Fold these 2 entries.
Entry 1:
Amino acid sequence: MSWLLPLPVAIPLLTAAGIASVKEIAPRRVLDATALAAAATATAFSLVIMVDTQNGDVLHWFGAWRPTGGVAIGIDFAADPLGAGLAALACGLVTLALLYSWSYMQEATRLFDVLMLVFCGAMAGFALTGDLFNMFVWFELMGVAAYALAGFQVEELGPLQGAVNFAITNTAGAYLILIGIGLLYARTGALNLAQLGRMLAGHPADRLVIVALTLVFIGFLVKAAIVPFHWWLADAHAVAPAPVCVLFSGAMVEMGIYAVARIYWTVFSASFDHSADVRNLLVWLGVVTALVGALMCFLQRHLKRMLAFSTITHAGVMLVGVGLLDPKALAGAANLVLSHGLVKGGLFMVCGLVLLRLRAIDELRLHGAGRAIPWWGVLWAAGTVGLIGVPYVGVFLGHALIDDGATVRGISSVQPLLMIAEAVSAGALLRVGARVFLGWGPRDDPLLTPEPPEEPPERDAAVTPMAVATTLAIAVGLALSVTPGLEHRAEHGADRFVDRSAYVAHVLHAAPATHEPRLPFTVEPASEESWAYGLAALALAVATAAFGLWRHRLPELLRSESARVLRPPLEIVRAAHSGIVGDYLLWLTVGTAVIGGVWAITLR
Amino acid sequence: MNFLAFGVAGWICLVGFYGAIVSKNLIHLALCLTVIQSSTYVLLLSIGYRKHGTAPIFKGVKLGTTAVDPVVQSLTLTDIVISVTVIALILALALDAHKKSGTIDPDQLADFHG
């Protein structure tokens, strides 16, 4: 069924072109419905492809330029379960976001639909392609649509700072990727991932390969919002409309993580026999990202910025899952991407409604105001609990698998650190829920980052489509940890993802798929260790929320002493998030030099 | 020869990054990005360069004539198309920022921080 493969890309892009050409004459609702139908169709085809890949990778060579004699000249789409699953998640989130926008973005021009569909097609293409330069093109297309969407200011909220910082930082990252691709082409004369991997295999990595690895990885880590390249993400989320944030946090950031995994396993895995150095750096980058994200999350009072920092926390955990270079951890990262994408998307949708109904997005100004919309408080609480990692709820399965992978690879010190990061960031969200929807805690907190005052315009909109989209996203996201058979399929998919020689044989030599095992539809019981981590995370999250709300009730001595010790480092981290794009580019340059330097020394 | 081209590409890239980092004007910043981008052209074209090679157009040319690599040229072309879009978008955002806040200094636009 290889003819299916281009459809999740072609349908949204063609529909976008169609909508753009008739947007002046056709009624608005017809255009909205067309866009929604196109995204839903793309989701359906992605799901069909995902099911199809259970019996082996699916290939499509554009223009039938098949490889001859094991040399690829044409460009291919190569879908495996994880790639197709990511495409399905991206298209599914676009569908939900469009459903939400049905009433939420009423006053927007229909260019919004066009941009959303281009974004959808680009993400699907990125997840499905088997060619490095093609990957770069989808990456840039995704970027262009995303920059325009981030600056899509129907709410007149704040300045365009977020969109500008986002566009400039990510463009600089994209040029690094292009330079890396150029160097790889100079060495191998190939752009196909399988071909690149085969040309590099068997030679120890030299300086050029290490430089290329650094540049390509850093470019994608910028998109994945990994410390110290994460700055743009919070700025972009603060200004982008809620349905756009759903896609930024739920799918776009994950594309960066996916690219690192895909390119490492297909291209570089054969050239590094001592992969421990690659692993150490990626894992610790991920851990630092998770911790910085959690700290900053706790310090926010702007709801969308807070969720953005929570996304940074989870991006760090996903990078640990990928960076452990272990199939089990990779399966965990894949599960985490899926459940986090849906749950976080749902939470952003709640934020959008809060902004629409209560006309504020500031935790302190919203104190107790959420009691007017209790159902949304329930959704917020459910989503927050889904992000903690409580046994059998939401992101739990992904975490448990990443922890298993860490144990296998002998880096078990990361598990408690990740647990703390996630619990603190989820605790901050719990605190928001208690303050906004229950009116608990004081009305003021000098610790939190002050926000520029803003007055969103009063708008009236039907709530039903928004409620349906939000409930669907959160409910499915929560249920993923108890979906029968998902764990086995993810692990099996990850095993195939890391099997470079099978990928090469299939893509370049059209080797028939080996017989695939029948996987059971069961939910595996969680290990005792996972239970312990899950419950500890729950306790810590509740404690964090209580600390945030009722810190003033602690004994005076304890408070002043802890403030004396904790304030200085905290202020440094806070000050580093300056909001100035020049600083971000400096971090990018220095980070690239440091990471490249570390690898140049350790990987030789 | 090849090393010279690589060195020039690296130099242009670093100069572009320097300009972008110290920039106090969004339009200047967008132009610095095009400078970084130019380094990728130099790099890509030098990768495809063959000594005494002709343009890769094979109509009416003897078989076996040396030609430069057409793949990197198409990569460069694609890159130009993509980057023009991105730069246009950044300039449009700069225009919008000026309309709204009356400044295009990125430092003064930074309302959100910390």
Entry 2:
Amino acid sequence: MSHHIVEVKELKFSYPDGTPALNGVNFRITHGESVALVGANGAGKSTLLLHLNGYLTPQEGSVRIGDMPITKKTLKQIRQTVGMVFQDPDDQLFLPRVYDDVAFGPTNLGLPPDEVRQRTLSALALVGAVHLKDRPPYKLSAGEKRAVSIATVLSMSPSILVMDEPTSNLDPKARRQLIHLLSEFDHTKIIATHDMDMVLDLCSRAIVLRGGEVVADGIARDILNNRDLLDASGLEKPLRLQGCPICSVASPPTS
Amino acid sequence: MGSIESSFFDIGHLDALSSKDTPIHRVDPRVKVLTTIYFIAVVISFNKYDPAGLAPLVIYPVAIMTIGNIPFSYIMKKLLIASPFVLSVALFNPILDRTPVLDLGLFSVSGGFVSFASIAAKFVLTAGAGLALIACTGFDSICSALSKMGVPGAFTIQLIFVYRYIFVLGEEAARMVRARALRSFGNKGLGMTVYGSMIGQLLLRTMDRAQRIHLAMLCRGFDGEIHHVASSKIRLSDFFFLAGWSGLFTLLRLYNFPAWLGRELGRLI
């Protein structure tokens, strides 16, 4: 199962205008782990994600997926292994029909039509969206769009799922359903997010980025309880780990 | 902004019409595209002083709309919206071309008026047939039919993307206009200068989005070609559809049916 490993070593990157984005990032994620990538806006999360599927090539350091370093030759295989779900489903769903969009990846992999069909339908079934298959994406609700976006990636049977803010813009119920859905996948998951409560639900490990560097990497529950670390990184404890605003603020029980 | 928003819903309506299930909807998209292209070619080939010859051809769009259960009023409204562009082209014909071609006793009709009528008729027929085609086929099916018939990917991909993102672009523009309207009081802030920078904004946002979409496509193995999954076979009935209509168009082009009808009627009387 070595192809499920993500290894980033001394990764550095600055944008063409000179803005440094990553400043020597190191981590290793193994098979089946569910990892949250947290950090303030501009900490380098998105830039890091763009390295994981070879959209950006490391200026210094290396990114390896399984046994392969990311190079031009391995790009196709890497992109099949690492399924990437973007933050805005309107970027992810670019074809006029949901079915075609989910079938886009498998078709490009050159699979036979029957296999494409079977994969498309089972990916849609997995996210509970088979009934949407003939609808145009612009007629879906935000929650439906998100589910379908995930299906477009699942249809390529990736071993690693990379997600950018999967719960943004969702209503509480849709968010809950998404968290439930993601918890059922046994893929290696890398989730960049500001939704700290979701991290608590989904991720066993958290990596905290600050100014393009990893400042903490460890068990999610410990990191989410470390107020000083979170404060310094522009983050906050998950609401569920904060004191109850009613019992802890109200006057102490009279007894 | 209401008008832009509602016209977007209207495009959605065109999509809804295309998901109906009638004999016309079931005809293979390629066959419908070919038939319509031939129809348009025949309509265009008519002499500009012969608007009467065009009249019988109206049967094609009318038949498609009737059997395909497409409301006439909807297509008419769309034609009306597009009409100023075409009519402005023909506007000067009556002024420039004053040779009398038709003498009706009291007054004579100049060649300009006849060619004006001919252009208008051609517009109604070709645009009507095109809209009817989209309404009973669906835009994506037409694009995939085009690419199956060998139209280069660059064109069909463009078409698909324009159709997909016109909604997103429209929504983005609508949001910007709303945001501006809410912060401009009276006529202040509604001038052209603001428009300039808004359009620039929109362009930049569009370019950003285009980059993200391209990235999303690359992530799923895009190699410059959109491979269409849905495979359909041309059936015998599709062949009859194409042969029947093309035969009819050819006949109506070669024989001036209205003139013949006029002569026969004249003889009867």
